[in-house]
Amino acid sequence: MSASTEIARRRTFAIISHPDAGKTTLTEKFLLYGNAIHLAGAVKDRKNQRATTSDWMELEKQRGISVSSTVLQFDYQGYAVNLLDTPGHKDFSEDTYRVLTAVDAALMVIDAAKGIEPQTRKLFEVCRRRGIPILTFMNKCDRPTRDPLALLDELETVLGLQTCPITWPLGNGPEFRGVYDRRARQVHLFERVPGGAYRAPESVAGLDDPLVREKLDPAVYETVAEQIAMLDGAGHPFDLAAVHAGKQTPVYFGSAVNNFGVQLLLDGFLHDSVPPAARRASSAPISGEAAPVDLREIPVTHEKFSGFIFKIQANMDPKHRDRIAFLRVCSGRFTRDMVVTHQRTGKTVRLSSSHKLFGQERETVDEAWPGDVIGLVGYDAFGIGDTLTEDRTIHFNEIPRFPPEVFAYISNPNPSDSKKYRAGLEQLLQEGVVQSFNARHAPPGSTLLAAVGPLQFEVVQYRLKSEYNAESRLEAASWTLMRWIEPHPSLANLSSLVVASGVSFGSDRHDNTIVLFPNDWTMRYFMEKNPDLRLHELPLEQVR
Ligand SMILES: Nc1nc2c(ncn2[C@@H]2O[C@H](COP(=O)(O)OP(=O)(O)OP(=O)(O)O)[C@@H](O)[C@H]2O)c(=O)[nH]1
Ligand SMILES: [Mg+2]
């Protein structure tokens, strides 16, 4: 296949939503319909010990929530699909935001009983800023839902998105029988299968077919027929250009857990979504001093290989205690053993350990194209946001950073076991979701951790135990804000600075000074009393 054919068949997208809307369940059903797995494991069905492919981490299996995003790559109907399941909980949103930089489209899952929830809205805003197409799935139609027209109206008024329903629900709750495909003008009636483990059998007929009238409650039939006539007459016509511009969202209805409407969604999504597009890059090094940052577009067809790392994950495979860097290919052709430049260090590296990913599983990959996400194993120097390329003028700067908002001291209760503890903590810190600092008045032997949400600390403790067999003790610290201070002579004597009570100092691993505040007021007071000091939300090497 030629390069342009390979690129054109790539579909790289993330599934996003508020916690519990059904992203992981839907991901699993896509794999089932994509023939990538043969039996779907129900997310919270712990009894028969079957877990989803996507929630592979021990903690995820236990709690039935996603803690970390997962990449699943498979071929389906000529498409090369890179599917990224993301965690919905806001404490893990940094991971989700990073994933969103690596995709070309997003599928927004909405619980049809609840409508748009806060986290959906936030993630939607991130997608909108990137201008990527967003398709919508109204899930859980097997339970009592809100009026489907009201759900569309909410998308229009709250998110400002034009909607175009592609499928329409036939009843809801116990009366939910299937969906109407507005494109083919056909009704899909489904039957439930135990646990949704297999594809749902379905029959297809026209809306006027006696079979359809027979299966549906007469009142439901009336309503549905009216709604469909109304949509045909007064709804927005499907506009592919508006979908690609992120202005119109095609809407699908169904029930992921019962496999209702999943195939129509998958087929429609792949068809209407977009292949990888050009990326913006700067010619000057990101952290370069005064060099002008000259932004330019790198087309996917650019001959030279380029890509960036958006995620690092340790210990995905308990058999190999190692660390995977997830790279999104942006241009050129990746081939195993190719030699590229690691732009942050300027060093050349041979990429010989490259993998195709499928949840926790991986297999060697010899070739990859723009849009693909590959896993690189065994390169300790790689960090989140790093560019790897054959073209030394390309520097991607895609990864958003967030100032931490919660803080805690972590320490090792078993000093005799310190090797495991330190190695584990070091590796988990490299994943970049939790940061560590030296705090000036820290309890002896403890490290200050900072994260976007408190659940991240629990994840660190849990993983230290399960992946490194290391106990840890956590003690909350009451700051809520942290800032980096630009170098200044007065930092040589911190005690001379005027600060409110509860304010403390520390340093990051590059020995830059940080300051910790209990609240907004103490920060404003600090700035007022120390007007010569410049504070930054992000690490200094990123703001320069
Ligand atoms: N009734 C019903 N329940 C569903 C449906 N789809 C998913 N669920 C249930 O909703 C719960 C949450 O599903 P998940 O797929 O884990 O949700 P998620 O969006 O991945 O959650 P996080 O990753 O933690 O944000 C599980 O108990 C699912 O079984 C559906 O179509 N109908
Ligand atoms: Mg999930």
Automatic annotation (TrEMBL):
Single Gene Ontology MF annotation: GTP binding
Chain ranges of the Tr-type G domain: 8-277
Keywords: Cytoplasm, GTP-binding, Nucleotide-binding, Protein biosynthesis
Record localization: Cytoplasm
Gene3D superfamilies tied to this protein: P-loop containing nucleotide triphosphate hydrolases (3.40.50.300), Peptide chain release factor 3, domain III (3.30.70.3280)
Main location: cytoplasm
GO cellular component: cytosol
Pfam families (UniProt xref): EF-G_D2, GTP_EFTU, RF3_C
CDD domains with a match to the protein in the record: RF3, RF3_II
Family, per entry: Belongs to the TRAFAC class translation factor GTPase superfamily. Classic translation factor GTPase family. PrfC subfamily.
Xref: HAMAP family: Rel_fac_3
Protein's name in the database: Peptide chain release factor 3
Origin species: mine drainage metagenome
Gene name of the encoded protein: prfC_3
